[in-house]
């Protein structure tokens, strides 16, 4: 099966945060000898490199639909990643200490996309419940007092718009026509979601929510919360920039004072 | 131009010949850009090779938009950022870290300014 290997290798080696990294011994497929490899866990993928300095991984294990368990092995601190299905293989790995083994088993068992999605959905739900509770289910804080229009029943911004994640996965189309032409020079189209309203006019970015120590004030905190709810994508963009800036600061501070 | 069955599963886009059960291939959807091209068409390109576009023609504009939205949200990295965002929001509103109940509040991947490995 073809894979966009270059993209995989890029993901493995780029500077997005690795959820775990370290040396592990990996048992060979056919021979039972263990080989020491440098492992990097990113997202739901466990990459392994020949050496720590290697520029490209030699392999990857996609951590979906698997269980991580301790296993009986002559090798100390061994654990296994087991996939179901007749054609699937079990990967036996061994750490160099009890602590390392526990850390790996923990991070690998929480690495799946499904796990992440579960947690995100849960937080989304919590946040929604809190916000709708505050605003009393009304999203009309931006209306001018003079013009009262009859609103459709229910909040102006439906909960569906707030949910960033697709409701149904996996997704199939029935059929799609593929045209794989390298070197196509079509100009990139900057169509971000939520940046334009129905008429195609750009929306101004939302005002940043006011940071308050206590969230018990219903009035202005609710106003800020409702405004900041305009679309998740806009906020996502803004927070993304904030996070990038913070990371940059952190990295610079880490480098320390220049001589 | 070839007709393919396309399936989005977690952060992979699998593609099949329409009459086969095994996929021909898959695209990992991390660090990629989803772009609306002409009518009914969108493309996927990757950060490390931006000039190479994988183009898809849909049956309708509606289907095209649906796929663009789904693919934009399909990456693990997007979910990680969403999680950090929600965690932050909830923490601001309640003063409590919502990840504590799951015992994952200390995990590196959920921190702002996580260190590089």
Automatic annotation (TrEMBL), chain A:
It comes from the Eukaryota. It is found in: Early endosome; Recycling endosome; Golgi apparatus, trans-Golgi network; Cytoplasmic vesicle, Clathrin-coated vesicle. The keyword Membrane does not apply. Pfam families: PH. Residues 17-113 form the PH domain. Keywords: Cytoplasmic vesicle, Endosome, Golgi apparatus, Phosphoprotein. One of its GO terms (cellular component) is recycling endosome. Plays a role in endocytic trafficking. Required for receptor recycling from endosomes, both to the trans-Golgi network and the plasma membrane. GO terms for biological process: endosome organization; receptor recycling; retrograde transport, endosome to Golgi. The keyword NADP does not apply. This is Sesquipedalian. Residues 179-227 are annotated as: Disordered. Residues 215-227 have a biased composition (Low complexity). Belongs to the sesquipedalian family.
Automatic annotation (TrEMBL), chain B:
SMART domains: PH. It comes from the Eukaryota. GO terms for cellular component: cytosol; early endosome; recycling endosome; trans-Golgi network. Gene3D superfamilies: Pleckstrin-homology domain (PH domain)/Phosphotyrosine-binding domain (PTB) (2.30.29.30). Transmembrane segments: none annotated. Pfam families: PH. Residues 1-76 form the PH domain. GO terms for biological process: endosome organization; receptor recycling; retrograde transport, endosome to Golgi. This is Pleckstrin homology domain-containing family J member 1. The lineage of its organism: Eukaryota, Metazoa, Chordata, Craniata, Vertebrata.
């Amino acid at each position: 099966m073809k894979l966009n290997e270059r993209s995989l290798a890029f993901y493995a080696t780029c500077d997005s945060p690795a959820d775990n990294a370290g040396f592990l011994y990996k048992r060979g497929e056919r021979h039972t000898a263990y080989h020491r490899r440098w492992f990097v866990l990113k997202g739901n993928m466990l990459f392994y490199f020949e050496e720590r300095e290697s520029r490209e991984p030699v392999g990857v294990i996609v951590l979906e639909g698997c269980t991580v368990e301790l296993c009986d092995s002559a090798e100390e601190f061994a654990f296994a990643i087991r996939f179901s299905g007749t054609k699937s293989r079990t990967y036996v790995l061994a750490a160099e200490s009890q602590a390392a083994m526990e850390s790996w088993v923990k991070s690998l068992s929480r690495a799946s996309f499904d796990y992440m999605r579960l947690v995100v959905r849960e937080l989304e739900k919590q946040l929604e419940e809190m916000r709708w509770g505050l605003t009393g289910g009304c999203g009309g804080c931006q209306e001018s007092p003079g013009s009262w229009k009859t609103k459709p029943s229910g909040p102006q911004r439906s909960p569906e718009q707030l949910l960033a994640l697709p409701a149904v996965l996996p997704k199939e189309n029935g059929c799609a026509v593929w045209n794989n032409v390298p070197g196509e020079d079509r100009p990139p189209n900057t169509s971000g979601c939520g940046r334009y309203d129905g008429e195609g006019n750009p929306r101004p970015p939302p005002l940043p929510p006011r940071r308050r120590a206590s969230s018990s004030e219903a009035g202005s905190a609710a106003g800020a919360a409702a405004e900041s709810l305009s679309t998740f994508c806009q906020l996502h963009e803004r927070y993304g920039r904030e996070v990038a800036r913070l990371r940059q600061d952190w990295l610079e501070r880490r480098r320390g004072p220049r001589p | 131009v070839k007709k393919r069955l396309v399936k989005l599963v977690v952060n992979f886009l699998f593609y099949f010949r329409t009459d086969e059960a095994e996929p021909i291939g898959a695209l990992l959807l991390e660090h990629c850009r989803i772009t609306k091209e002409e009518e009914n068409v969108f493309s996927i390109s990757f950060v490390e090779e931006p000039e190479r576009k994988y183009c898809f023609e849909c049956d309708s504009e509606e289907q095209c938009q649906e796929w663009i939205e789904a693919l934009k949200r399909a990456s693990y990295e997007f979910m990680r950022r969403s999680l950090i965002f929600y965690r932050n929001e909830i923490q601001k509103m309640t003063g409590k870290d919502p990840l504590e109940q799951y015992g994952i509040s200390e995990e590196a991947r959920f921190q702002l300014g996580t260190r590089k490995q």
